[in-house]
Design a protein that fits this description.
By secondary structure, the protein is mainly alpha-helical. The chain has one domain. About 0% of the residues are buried. It is rod-shaped and about 45 Å long. The protein contains one helix and no strands.
Length: about 40
């Protein structure tokens, strides 16, 4: 039973980490797009 609980915690932590990575990627892409749009003007 304790092993199942630890697995759930690890999955939850991995899920939260994946969300943070996704947000970081979106932020970087957004910054690049803004830079490209300003550079064209």
């Amino acid at each position: 039973m304790k092993l199942v609980g630890s697995e759930r915690r690890q999955r939850g932590g991995g899920f939260g980490r994946a969300i943070k990575q996704q947000r970081a990627r979106l932020y970087i892409i957004q910054r690049c797009v803004v830079m490209l749009l300003r550079w064209q003007d």
